Amino acid sequence: MAITVNGMLPGPTLEVKNGDTLEIEVVNKAKYNATIHWHGVRQMRTGWADGPEFVTQCPIRPGGSYTYRFTIEGQEGTLWWHAHSSWLRATVYGALIIRPREGESYPFPKPKRETAIVLGEWWDANPIDVVRQATMTGAAPNNSDAYTINGQPGDLYKCSSKDFGETNLLRVINAALNQPLFFTVANHKFTVVGADASYLKPFTTSVIMVGPGQTTDVLIQGNQLPARYYMAARAYQSA
User: Fold this and answer.
1) 14-99, superfamily in CATH?
2) Cα angle: 189, vertex 227, 151; to 5 degrees
3) CA quadruple 174, 235, 210, 113: dihedral positive or negative?
4) Left, alpha or beta for 197 (phi > 0: left; psi -120 to 50: alpha)?
5) Mean pLDDT for each 10-residue chunk of the chain (239 residues)?
6) Contact 35, 53 (CB under 8 A)
7) Residue 193, SS3?
8) CA within 20 to 30 Å of 20's CA: 102, 160, 164, 224, which one?
9) Does domain 113-235 match CATH 2.60.40.420?
């Protein structure tokens, strides 16, 4: 059985604005110690809210709880949150969306809709056992049995939708533990506008490579005939 947050894989998407203060209570109902890390958030005078186990806090023991409090300062775009204890991160993660302050706008045309695309891994085993076995043998951990898009493996799962003529913003997050992933949508091009909660000078490409823990924001145009198009992620492999 996978350990998740609120029974969801990925976990809940947090949507905030630049300048907002977050207060999040984490209750640990799992049988393992746990902490939550707010990946990429600049912890300004709130280092104790960063989340790495035994670095900025003691772990949240089974049955315990901890309240994280921090403020988003000067960041806009896509980040994410995940467990920071052993390999709980394999299934304990979710998106953190940071929009502009009230009255401010994106430095690019406003999209019709926005979709978080969270890329992950799946083991047909307890990920904690996978990393423990690797520690005992000294070998690298076994590769995952599947890659996922928004928690779903394989073909024919609906990841996103758009209407003809509209512009969508895809917020792509690589939540895989160790693998850089290439990501593309068949017959479409991307306009890359941001990465890791920072805006970029826009450029166009048909594929992006997202490293573990990284995020990339892309605009996609609904300029193809209405149909179903593959959305695919593939691991980087070298000879």
Assistant:
1) Cupredoxins -  blue copper proteins (2.60.40.420)
2) 75
3) negative
4) left
5) 91 98 97 96 95 94 97 97 92 97 94 95 88 85 88 76 81 94 94 98 97 97 81 78
6) yes
7) strand
8) 160
9) yes
